[in-house]
What does this fold into?
Amino acid sequence: MVGLPRNTEVADQFDLLADLMELEGADTFRVIAYRRAATRMRETSGSIAQLALDGKAKELSGIGKTIEEKIVQIVEKGEIEALTKKKAGVPPEVVLFMRLPGLGPKTAARIWRELDVTTLDELKAAAEGQRLRGLTGLGAKSEEKILKALAFQAQNVDAGDRRLLGEGLPAVQAVVATLRDHPAAVAVSEAGSVRRRKETFRDLDIIATASDPAELTTYFTQLKWVVDVAAHGDTKATVVSNDGLRFDLRVVPPESFGNLLQHFTGSKDHNVAMREDAVRRGLSISEYGVTTVETGEVFQSADEDAVYEFLGYQPVPPELRENAGELEAARRGELPALVELGDVRGDLHTHTHWSADGKNTLEEMVQAAAERGYEYYAITDHSHYLREGRLHAQLEEIERVRERFPKLRILSGVEANIRASGEVDVADEDLALLDWVVASVHQAPDNRPTERVLEAMQNPYVDCIGHLTGRRIGKRPPRDVDVERVIEAALASGTFLEINGQPDRLDLRDVHARAAKEAGLKLVLTSDGHQLRAQSYVELAVAQARRGWLTKDDVLNTRTWKQVEKLRKKRP
DNA sequence: GCCGTTTTCGGCCCGACTGTTTTCAGTCG
It folds into this structure.
């Protein structure tokens, strides 16, 4: 495994190759094929490089013989040969032209070739010097747009263009609720990537029907937290909130609400695959309806499920709409019944003020857990803060709190640290006193990320590995853990893996959760909450689990504590 | 470059918007 390029690195090369070919005016379908293959690689849980070396990459849809060979080139030579060649012919910054909104490959190539503009600085100068309007098809407005895009890009260079689901989900749910209360509103729904519970988003989409669309749209632009109205028409508006979130509202006709909701929920890949399949059956899908080509008859519905059913599919839960096999499964009627928040009986990774970064007392956290209706709740403060008798002191406090909450089973636990050696930093005799043990890697760097975890799993007291890869979305990449090996070892040792619900962790990620499920491993959904309101992060863990195709049965903590005890590894 | 319950060759989603055009190409989601 060591030394093989990551899936994201391989995928990036194919995307760059696609960009360069597009600039050269290559066949669009080849370009699309490379981009599709890149997406497939990013959404594959195993090592795509290893698959290619084994001749198995071409079993993935969208990857054929040619692309598999190019992956092998990356392993052997570090780069796709065609990419090396093409990079020599195109100034590196010309690719960046295409990233500016409104500026595509055709225009970028003409600016480069016909005006000899090769850097972003030169592009700016050319627009300011009104030289772009010399090209047919470009005018004063184009120059203005490009300058605006360049300025925006310069301003937001550090901001990152995607925000966390954990921020966007409560925000969009609040706006949906507000709009529903308006007298002109008939139906209101979240849409887009946030409805699919994708871990990050660019903007928050809302779809509605209304008795008076213009009135609802205007109301939306005048909500008190709106600081900027980027667009405002009768049926569509875009606003920016005081915390920088972009909301899009579209008001659509009620008779095709289901078709439009389906369209605007995406993903693009899901919709394209569904439309391609429809074409083969003599149907044409658009956001307004499904047309039977032969008769011209159009099917519309206010109900999204009815759209899927008309097309011969089981209704597909939004979390699965990524063109990752869900359409085939829905065609056969074999979609899984996904786990729901209400199935979760207890949280097995939480903190209190015993950890320096915990914000609430043990009793406050337990009180909130009881109010959530949990049957059990594990206190797993960081081992670092439970040294020198503090572990025993906390056990005494837990004993006292138990008396006050007789209906909630309070589990004593710890989040132990996995040392570089693979040992956990709590003695066995202390671990033996506890009901539940989470073990996690905290400090980097890490030159044997996989072995370290495998060794920790051999400890008979370690029940679950916390946030396996240690990623912090947007801040820190995942450690280079061989997740497939970890899953195998987890099954062999009787250790569980968690889906950590912290908004910037969501670790395991969706495709790894799905790989774990397919291997037969049960996962634990946890909040890793360090304060009262963070207990709700379990909702994000549930969302991630659903994106990983997990059913109630695939999740350990949908079971009673008695059942959990039966399933976990035997203690000495 | 990929793919196949009409196909191993000849297709490859669909519509809106924008800016520049007198009928459309490029871009976007």
